[in-house]
Amino acid sequence: MNLAIYLRDHLTDPAPLVSRDIFEIGCSILDLSQNNPKLEILNTNRVEEFSNYVESVISDRKVKIAVGGYAENRVIYDKSAVFEGIERRTIHLGVDIWSKAYTPIYAPLEGKIHSFKNNTAIGDYGPTIILEHDLKKRKFYTLYGHLSEDSINGLNVGRKISKGEQFAKIGNYPSNGNWPPHLHFQIINDLEGNSGDYPGVCAASQAEKYLQNCPDPQIMMPFLNKSSIIK
Fold it and tell me: What is the pTM (predicted TM-score) of this model?
């Protein structure tokens, strides 16, 4: 069965990824596609300038986080060779939660540490954790990228993580891949042999394959609903 359909039918009451209080205040949408005219003059290769823009989107709306990004065709991936290839990768496969560095991250479901790695290339994930979940005998994975370095210190593969347990923190630049502070959250059906890493962005020609393997993470974020979005 398709993982998105399985999660829709069997997932109940996942824990918030960040403090519920943060979401209750509301959140903003951060559009990083070509539809955002502000990106035409913003130099996203300059991480401090990019961070100031993200902070302004959040503060102007009097919230504490901005979210967005699943299946978004982004124009910001020219900063790194990580996204190069025969066809540049531009389709974002997760949801980003943009917030202050060192914001605690909580497990939405019970699971265990599948793998972790510091993906150190500029533009990459930086410190990354992948959790393995078994939901009524269906195995799948969640990936957490751009974490703080201490999030992966002392970790052990196989360690059990309880639902709602704090197990990581949002990282800061440059150690988080040199991005404005945020969490990249992604659901993965098949890791395809990867460990501590999995593509978070794909080429447009491969979008159908990757979006099927990585369904919309908002299915695990019911606390993020239309009433909480402040545009």
Answer: 0.94
